[in-house]
Amino acid sequence: MPESVNLVFDITSEFVEDILKGFVEGWKAKHRSTTNQYQRFFWSVNGLSLILYEKKLVVQGRLNEFTKRVLKELPHVKGLTLDSSNAEKLRRIFPVRQNSIVCGICQKDTLLIQSSIEGLDISFRMECEHRHDLTAPFLTLNNRVLPDINMLVSKSVSRLVNLGFLTGAEIVFPEVILDVIDVFKKTGKKKAISSELKNLRRIREKGRIKINTFSNLPIDIKEHAEEDKIILDFAHFTNSVLLTSDEVFKERALMSGRPTIFISPDDFGELKMIEKVRTQ
Ligand SMILES: [Zn+2]
Fold first, then answer.
1. CA of residue 9 to ligand 1 center, whole Å
2. Which of 12, 110, 157, 220 has CA 20 to 30 A from 21's CA?
């Protein structure tokens, strides 16, 4: 996780300077003198500088629990937007909390819903302080995607990421998959999967995705008979969205209630071509 931050917000026509001023005052920001004629305001909050220009807000400085809270709220200030590279920087500071609950009012995620007594009433509040009425459905965040063996062998996962899909996802790559391949004696496939894993690790370095190998799970492959069953069990076990190109497997996963992303194997060739054209 990064220890410092350098973000540039764009200012849209919806921006109202007083709203931002109210926001920074709420965090007990200190006024600093501007250092050049283009700066409109210069605030500092606990080692974090916020410099307002005509069309930009530059935020830079130290990351700590306090400034992270400021950064989490800041994008909700009306009229501030982030382009994709700045949004990605912000995402790296706040990884998605798997299975956290999304507030239907403000869209912030929460791990905790807590009771509070108000007069003769009991109510429940999320971390954002909005109420949750404890009525289903609970909208939860899921960032885990588990590709099946064909998706890995065809290198379609790294291609999708290179094309801008699956950004922010945690790709579940159970090490046990390599054992599965051993058990089913598919050496050509093992080579292809290792090379796809290398691709994904390279992409991870840029912060676009995360990889979770669940390396310490006590799963004995020989006990199971089918490759698909092992993968599907793993998807259930890790609560992942399954990513597959196998029609039969897709049906099977859906039957057992597993959220699934399906890519027709007929589209693999196209995917390869599009990636080549777009990333050159
Ligand atoms: Zn809320």
1. 23
2. 110
Strand ordering across the sheet containing 39-45: 30-31, 39-45, 48-53, 56-62, 4-11, 80-81
Query: How far apart are the CA of 110 and the centre of ligand 1, in A?
Result: 9
- From first to last of its 280 residues, what are the pLDDT tens digits of the chain? 568 999 999 999 999 999 999 999 999 999 999 999 999 999 999 999 999 999 999 999 999 989 999 998 999 899 999 998 898 888 788 877 889 999 988 888 899 999 999 889 999 999 888 999 999 999 999 999 999 999 999 999 999 999 989 988 999 998 877 777 777 666 788 889 989 999 999 998 887 899 998 887 766 666 556 888 889 989 999 999 999 999 999 999 999 999 999 999 999 889 999 989 987 7
Residues near ligand 1 ion, CB 5 Å cutoff: 103, 105-106, 128, 130
Task: Give the Å distance between the CA of 127 and the centre of ligand 1.
Answer: 7
Residues 196 and 248 occupy one common structural domain: yes
CA 131, 135, 138, 139 torsion-angle sign: negative
Mark which of 54, 73, 93 sits at the end of a domain. Answer: 93
Last residue of a domain, one of 77, 108, 141: 141
In the chain, the largest separation of any two C-alpha atoms, in whole Å, equals: 71
Q: Structural domain of residue 119, as residue ranges?
A: 96-141
Q: Are residues 253 and 184 in the same domain?
A: yes
Question: CA neighbours within 13 Å on the CB side: how many for 168?
Answer: 17
255 and 193, same structural domain?
Answer: yes
